[in-house]
Structure formats: C-alpha cells, structure tokens
Amino acid sequence: SCPKNLINMWNKMYGRDRTLSILECINDRPPVFAVPNTKFVDAQELQYELFDEGIDCEVYNECVKINSPFDMKSLRSYDNGLFYIEDYSSYTAACNLGVSDKEVVLDICAAPGAKSFTMAQNGAKIYSFDIHNHRVELIKKSAQRLELDNVYADINDALVYNENIPKADKILCDVPCSGFGIIRRKPEIRYKNLDNIKELPPIQLKILQTSS
C-alpha cells in the first residue's frame, strides 16, 4: 500500500507510467551490495570469501551483490574488515567525486560512513562529520574495523560555519532529503507528512552554502 497523497505527488512529478513503475519497484526486495575493502581484497576475492561462508553472491562491477539472506555480524569476512555494506547509488556518488590519494575531502552528513570509506580507499584524507555523537562513534568503529586510518570522524553541525574544519580539495554533501529513494529499505518512509518535505530545500541550500 501507498498513501494516495504520495501517489498523487509522483503522478504530478513523473506521470502515470513512471509512477506505476515506482510503485512496483518499492515493493521488491532491495538489493544488497558489499563493497570490498581494497586494502585486503578485490571484488573477485571477496566473492570467494563469501562463497566460503555459504553466501550466494555475484560480482557486480567493483562490488559484490549478495543474493541470499545473511547475518552480517556472524561472518568472518565482515569481522576481518574485508567489506562494508553500501547502496550502489551511494557507492557511485562517492566514486564519481573522483578522489585521489593526495586530496583532503570533507564528507558532510556522513553517517553511517560508507561513502567516506569508499573515498578513503584511494588514500585520500577523509574528514567525516555528523551532528549526532552516536553516529560519529558508529563511523569511528567501522573505520577501525576496516583499518582505514585515513578517516577522521567528528561532530559538526552542517548548518553552522566551523572555522576549525580544514580546507578541502573536495566536499561531499549528502544533505537531508525526503528519503523516498530508500522506501524499499525503510517502508515506513512512505507515510511521512509531505508538508514536512517543504522545509527541506532551505536546509539543503544552507548546508551547501556553509560547506562551500
């Protein structure tokens, strides 16, 4: 099911045919992608490791698509820091920034940290920020598991200019959004109050202005 007001909004934005495609898609099981930690393995090697632990999976470009249910924290390969989970769209966004090993990069609104980890694999110095301490600790814990010592996580309010943040070659801003793109993972998002979404553009613009 999907709220009528959300369907009407999509109809207005995308038209009937695309809206029908969206409605079909959001009820599918979302794909799960494991990104190899190239400090230790490439995609092919990670696939072999997961096969060895009984996981049905396939190489998908530079990632591994997992096709069977699994308990991530029970996997030896996870404990050993061989991979992290990331939506493929997020992985692509991080890759498209084109980070090189000598660059300094700011990841604004970074939690849970996957995009930071993807950018860090090229050797760049990554500063990952979030406004919530528990989410910053999550980034730190994951970076430690992955042995990515070039990821530095700290608390920061993206809406407020902070002169203590280092200058960077590149900045990635994953600003607050409607979340409709991840309805398959979080079905409850479809019941959001659409009026609240109208508050997002000024916040998004402020974060971009502050970051630049």
Task: Tell me what the structure shows.
The chain has nine helices and eight strands. The longest helix has 14 residues.
Which characteristics define this entry?
single chain; four-stranded parallel β-sheet; four-stranded antiparallel β-sheet; 212 residues
How much of the residues is beta strand, in percent? 15-25%
Q: Overall mean pLDDT score?
A: 94
- Low-pLDDT parts are none
Rg (CA only): 19 Å
Summarize the main sheet: 4 strands, antiparallel
How far from one another are the termini?
41 Å
Secondary-structure topology with pairs:
Blueprint: H1 4-14, H2 16-25, E1 32-36, H3 43-52, E2 57-60, E3 63-66, H4 76-79, E4 83-85, H5 88-96, E5 104-108, H6 114-120, E6 125-130, H7 133-146, E7 151-155, E8 170-173, H8 194-197, H9 200-211
Helix pairs in contact: 1-2, 5-6
Concise account of the structure shown:
Helices cover 38% and strands 17% of the residues.
